[in-house]
Structures are given as C-alpha cells and as structure tokens.
Design a protein that fits this description.
This protein has about 260 residues and is an alpha+beta fold. It has 5 helices and 15 strands.
Length: about 260
C-alpha cells in the first residue's frame, strides 16, 4: 500500500471529521468501518476485491488521522470496535497501544493490519507498522499481549506479542521490543542469546503436526513478575510444550542454557 496515498487519505479524513468527535463517535466509526470490511469479505461481486481494499484503507487512514491520535482515544475501551473485530493491547502505563484487525485480503493466509499509537513529551503519534515494501503485502499478525519493563538506565521497554496465520495449517508467533524516543517507536535489542542481542524473536510451526486441546497451544509468555520469558520450542515443524527460558538481568532477557 502506497504511504503517500495513505497520508493524503488521512488528511482528507482529518478535514472531514475534525477535532469534534467524541470517544463514543470514534468507537462507532471504527466499528462501522470494520463491519463494512467484514461485509465486503463475503461479497462475490466483480468489485469485491477493490472495495475490500478500499474499506481497509479508509479504516487505516481514519485510525492514523489527527483527531483519533489523541490521549482520550489511547485510553478508551472502544467496546463497539472490539466487538466488530478490532484488537487493541495497551501498556500498563497507558503510553502505547497496538491495534490490529483482519483485512480479509489474504484468503487462508490472514493479512492483519497493525497500527501503533503512543505518546511522549512531544504529544501523540500514530504509525502504520506493516512493511509496505513487501511484494503482495505484509501478512503480519494479530496482537495478543503487551508488557513493559524499566531497565537500569530508566528506559521503558515495551514488548508486544503477535500471532500469525500463514495458511490453513501454518502458524507463527513473534515477540518484539520497542522504546519511545523523540516521537519515534524504535526497535530495542533486549533478547540476549548465546551469540546475539535481538529486538525480536519469532517461530513458526505446522498446527496439524501436534495435537493440543483447543485454546491450550503453547505460546510466548512471561512469569507473573515479568522477570522470566518463555519461548516455545519447535522441533522440525512440530510445536512442543517445552520452552526456552530467558531471565531478566535489569537490562536484557538473557537466555538460560541450563534452564529446566
């Protein structure tokens, strides 16, 4: 999707909705766009593909418009929007939120759009996180959780998890770390393996290769105190219920080679 086109459409949306929309109106508008996306996804007409793409572009432009990128929206429940398919995960300090929704553009490969909204001393900021340079579109994933830690230097690091659906059987999960600095969302290396310091850990697996009860698939998670990170182990394409363990040392999550 062309970034210039999104920027121009965002400006049009900005001029159309103005600053006057309440939280309730924003909630209703996002829900309306999501319902239109879902309706177009089941349409069989000749114009379906173009109309579905246009509906997603309008929602993206709206979510990244100036009237929506304000603190009241960052902290709002957006109940109707969530019931219509919007996923929102928010940090405990209410400074950053990640949005995602299924565009229905990918068929069995679910293409989710991802948006980050955050605030700093310079105000509110909203960015589109999908890689627009990927040929055929960035399929990304749907956000599932967000936790933060403050390192020894006083920097807050936000770690967000994301679940992806590559096809009928292909699944994956990612955890990515960010910091907020000078109006930017910066990748933050924090996951220390035996050889590298990474800002992201990801894995993929065949969901048909191992049987787990519905809703009980092993997944990336933290201990209750957020000091230990667990990453499921995949053998071949088979997901297991065993984990790699990373312990927080005040700066990084360090891989524990001998953890049980």
């Amino acid at each position: 999707m062309n970034k210039l086109f999104i920027a121009l459409l965002s400006l049009i949306v900005f001029n159309a909705v103005g600053y006057g929309q309440s939280v309730s109106q924003v909630d209703n508008t996002v829900a309306k766009y999501l319902n239109a996306i879902r309706n177009w996804s089941t349409d069989t007409s000749y114009a379906q593909a173009d109309s579905l793409d246009a509906a997603n572009t309008r929602l993206l432009a709206y979510l990244t418009s100036v009237p929506v990128a304000r603190e009241a929206i960052l902290q709002a429940d957006l109940t109707k929007a969530k019931k219509s398919g919007l996923v929102a995960v928010t940090s405990s300090d209410s400074k950053i939120r990640f949005y995602s929704w299924d565009t229905y553009l990918g068929g069995t490969m679910h293409m989710f759009y991802n948006v980050a909204q955050f605030k700093d001393a310079n105000g509110m900021h909203t960015i589109f996180l999908n890689d627009t340079t990927v040929d055929g579109g960035d399929y990304a994933g749907i956000y599932t959780g967000l936790i933060s830690v403050t390192n020894a230097a006083g920097k807050v690091v936000y770690m967000v998890t994301r679940y992806s659906i590559g096809s009928t059987k292909d699944r994956g999960e990612t955890i990515a770390a960010y910091t907020i600095y000078n109006g930017q969302l910066l990748k933050q290396p924090i996951f220390k393996t035996t050889k590298k310091l990474l800002d992201l850990i990801e894995y993929g697996y065949d969901s048909f290769a191992a049987a787990f009860p519905k809703g009980e698939y092993p997944a990336i998670h933290f201990s209750k105190d957020n000091k230990t990170l667990y990453i499921p182990i995949v053998i071949g394409e088979k997901l297991t219920n065993h984990y790699l363990t990373y312990k927080y040392d005040g700066n990084n999550y360090v891989f524990e080679k001998n953890a049980k």
